[in-house]
Amino acid sequence: MAWLTDLLKEYPALSVAKERLALAEERFKHTEEENKKLKDRITELETQNTQLHAQLPKISSGELEEVEIEILKLLSSAGDNGGSASAIAQRLGINETKAEYYAEKMAEQEYVYQSYVMNMPVTYSLDQKGREFLVKNDHI
């Protein structure tokens, strides 16, 4: 029987089949590793997706930070005259740069309106979306 094994060892097609089998096993191992990495990535992305979905209602509802709400309330009481960033900062007791940052941010989101007059500071006044936010959220 040993002579049969020796004969098969020297059979060229068998060595080619062994090489192909080894190559197939290597490819399978690589595919399994890649599959595991992809599954881990999917899990990571699903977690991120869940976190972003949790933030979505806050973003879409237009929830503002407390300082932004205070600015809207202040502009609401100021009427059509509005106020500059320095006036807002002074009345709320916050830094002028902070007041300007939030006022400009809310202007971009159309909560407040910016008025420009030559050689005068920018004046901010309540826009329709800002009024709507204050009314719908019982801030006024």
Describe the protein in words.
The chain has 140 residues and is mostly helical. The protein folds into 2 domains: 2-60; 66-136, Arc Repressor Mutant, subunit A (Orthogonal Bundle). Helices cover 71% and strands 7% of the residues. The chain is built from 6 helices and 3 strands, in the order αααβααββα. It has helices spanning 2-9, 12-60, 66-78, 85-92, 96-108, 128-136; strands spanning 83-84, 112-115, 123-126. A hairpin with a 7-residue loop joins strand 2 and strand 3 (123-126). Helix 4 packs across helix 5 (96-108). The mean pLDDT is 83.
CATH homologous superfamily descriptor of the largest domain: Winged helix-like DNA-binding domain superfamily/Winged helix DNA-binding domain
First-residue to last-residue Cα separation: 99 Å
Report the count of strand segments: 3
**CATH C-level of the largest domain:** Mainly Alpha
Strand order of the largest sheet: 1-3-2
Main pleated sheet:
3 strands, antiparallel
The CATH topology of the largest domain = Arc Repressor Mutant, subunit A
CA radius of gyration is: 34 Å
Helix content: over 70%
> What would you call the structural class?
mainly alpha
> Which architecture name of the largest domain does CATH use?
Orthogonal Bundle
